[in-house]
Task: structure prediction
Amino acid sequence: MKTTVTYVGNWLKNLFIIAGLTSLMTGVAVASESHGADHGHGAHGEEAAHGHASAEESEDVDITEVIGHHISDGHDWHIIDINDHPVSVPLPVILYSSEKGLDVFLSSKFQHNDDGKVVVETKAGNRYVKVHEEIYFASEKANAHGAFVEMDEHHHPVNAKPYDVSLTKDVAEMLLGVSLMLVIFISVANGAKKREGKAPRGIQSFFEPLILFVRDEIAIPNIGKKHHERFMPFLLTVFFFIWINNLLGLLPGAPNLTGNIAVTLTLAVFTLVITVVNGNKNYWLHIFATPGVPWWLLPIMVPIEIIGIFTKPFSLMVRLFANITAGHIVILCVIGLIFMFKSAYVGVASVPFGVFMNALELLVAFLQAFVFTLLSAIYFGSAVEEGHH
Amino acid sequence: MDKLIQPGFGLIIWQAVIFLVVLFLLTKFAWKPVLKSIKDREATIEGALNAAEEAKAEMAKLKSDNERLIKEAKVERDAILKAANETAEKLITESKLKAREEADKEKEKVLVAIENEKRSAVASLRKEAADLSVEIAEKVLRKELSQKPAQDALLDSYVKEGELALLN
Result:
């Protein structure tokens, strides 16, 4: 246990050093971003770095809208506004419905419109509009606000929706993240093959201790030496997927991938499926006939245990989502203060605090990857545990 | 903001597909070779450590063997020296004893020779003395018997002696 503590201690120390260096760079980037936005403020007096949708008529920047826009998924990768003109990377929109079939086009066809005023008509004659990053089939004619959708009393569109499997900015970010993972770890593997039986070098010597950390501090203590090997690929992939994407999400302009509930949901479902599939006799015995529990308590215990199967991955999903999203919201709020008070002097306080938050988020990025992997390993461990009663 | 907690359908599909593909690719091309190389390296290191331990034990054994051999050699040397000393002493004592015996024997011989010489000297002395006394007696007798009575008396005594002897 003591070695574990010193190991984690050393790790945190290294992490703080990395965090310090990176936050220094990110801090500069955040500062320049706010500076650029300040410029826009001076020239036009309405547009912030991210806000453009509702800020068109008013002098005030709707920070809630800006933050909401940043932390949610989007059909194009919006980077910055320059002189009121949004700069973004267009991404493919992929839509499917059983009646209208498959449609693929670039998100730039919506011309950055997000309230249903621009209709995209495909070659097949299908018409689509985008409202708050949701794509609907367009109505025949525009409503009173010029949007081609029918609205209910809560201003929610009631039009039919196709299945939207667009390559959104989160998917693009994910592809970037996993490409980075493939490049890193395949070169680590090549290094291991090239220097077989020798000491690791270069990128290999940075990542091998991390791989060993996952094996020796997460997998083996919680799953046991006998069974841990078959869970290693999943645990390693999940650990590095979350960590690397958490870190990428901290870069300015990067989407909030690991703070998206669809992503954490999918990861948690994988953990659930692997746990249930690997559950041995002892695991199911614990659920349906918990040893040491009097028979008359079983009618209460069994439903609780069955709910427990699902609450465990549910907590994984919510924990990662909430931690990462909250971090993004706090940083954006701190920087947003500058625009709310419309004074560059607020930056004197909010930029250092933003830098501090960023450093904290670097720690959280590692911690959440660690916690997700650790808890997954504990659940796997309970699934393959041998009976010892 | 309620959109935030509604998982998007498309993203779930993408995430599942991409994650599974990455899981497959990384398992095949990264995790397996890396984990195998780590395992192999650990085995190599453990083997080397064990070998070193064994070599150390072997060295210690050799050293103790050597010490034992030296000790044995010393004991043997001492024994040989002791035996040699003993033999030498014995030889000396034996030769001394022999010499003494020889000397004793020689002495005895000499004593016997002396005794013999003494005896023969005594015998020859006695014979000389007897001869001398006979001569003296003869001379005395000669002088005694030169007168006739004395010769008769003697003759008488002889006859008497002879008669007695016949009577008896």
Remarks:
- The mean pLDDT of chain B is 90.
